[in-house]
Write the structure tokens for this entry.
Amino acid sequence: MGDKKLYTQLFKQFLHEYKNGSAILAKLLKEDLTAAGIFIHSMKGVAGTLGMHQITEAAIALEANLKQDPQSIAKNSAAFYVALDAMLDVISAAYSEPVVNQTNTLSNSAEAELLIAQLFELLEDCDGEAVEIYYKLRDDLEPIVDVSLLDRLGCAIANDFDFLAATRWLKEIQLARGLS
């Protein structure tokens, strides 16, 4: 089965990154077929890696349909949406966490600074554990820091493995938060 902690992290990352996947793809299919193809291809790879066979098969069919007849993608896109949304529901249910009262979120500067310092250290060492710390920090700072900054940090760490860029985004988050 493998490393449970790693799979948990990967599924949570999948949930976070693709929670609006159906809406994003629907928009891309209307506005930018090249970007839609890239999104589908990426989703196919991620789903295949994580053993999400229904999404993989739906992505394969949709990708082929997009290449052969981009104007008639409704049937295959519907199958893709159903597979993706079902998987997101399963992952969400499996990893649901209790709702935290907003006043109990990590707005405590000392704790935030501790996580940020730990993340800086992991980024400096190019340590993959940075992903886990990022998600802890994100969950806690999301209510009080611009989500686009958190998204950029997450993309740099988890998608691009660009720890130098992640360090820059983390500094910007630190400034936005008023932390030293």
Summary: The chain has nine helices and no strands.
